[in-house]
Write a structure and sequence with these properties.
The protein has about 120 residues and is of the alpha+beta class. It folds into two domains: about 5-65; about 70-110, no CATH class. Helix content is about 55%, strand content about 20%. The protein is built from three helices and three strands. It has helices at about 5-30, 35-65, 95, and strands spanning about 70-75, 85-90, 105-110. It has a three-stranded mixed sheet with strand order 2-1-3, with no helix packed on it. The two termini are about 35 Å apart. The relative contact order is 0.13. The mean pLDDT is about 85.
């Protein structure tokens, strides 16, 4: 599945379906729209199913490590206050170069020279 498709599914489940349900609920009660409970219930069931699929895909994606780049170690030096960083890439650079997005775990207070 492409990142674009995944992001569209995620946005639909987290933003658009809940927005539609809230709008229909609010306006339906004010203006007397038909079958408010049935419409809200249907949207909620669809949203729950889609959210479950998105969550499962996210876990699978994370388990495969495809978008995981490694760790970014950050430390502020005591003497100068300058922030030093070290990037530890744990995945194959060729795999990372093909990704639209890559995540790194940020470790604060780590001495980059000790790693």
């Amino acid at each position: 599945m492409s990142n674009k498709m995944y992001n569209a599914m995620k946005q639909t489940s987290q933003i658009w379906l809940p927005l539609m349900a809230a709008l229909y609920f609010g306006l339906g009660n004010i203006w007397g729209f038909p079958k408010v409970e049935e419409v809200i219930g249907s949207i909620t069931v669809i949203d729950t199913a889609l959210g479950t699929v998105v969550t499962a895909l996210a876990h699978q994606y994370k388990k495969l490590g495809v978008g995981y780049g490694g760790e970014l170690n950050v430390v502020e030096t005591d003497e100068t206050g300058i922030v030093a960083m070290q990037l530890d890439v744990s995945n194959d650079p060729e795999v990372l170069a093909k990704q639209d997005e890559v995540t790194f775990k940020v470790n604060r207070g780590v001495n980059p020279e000790a790693s």
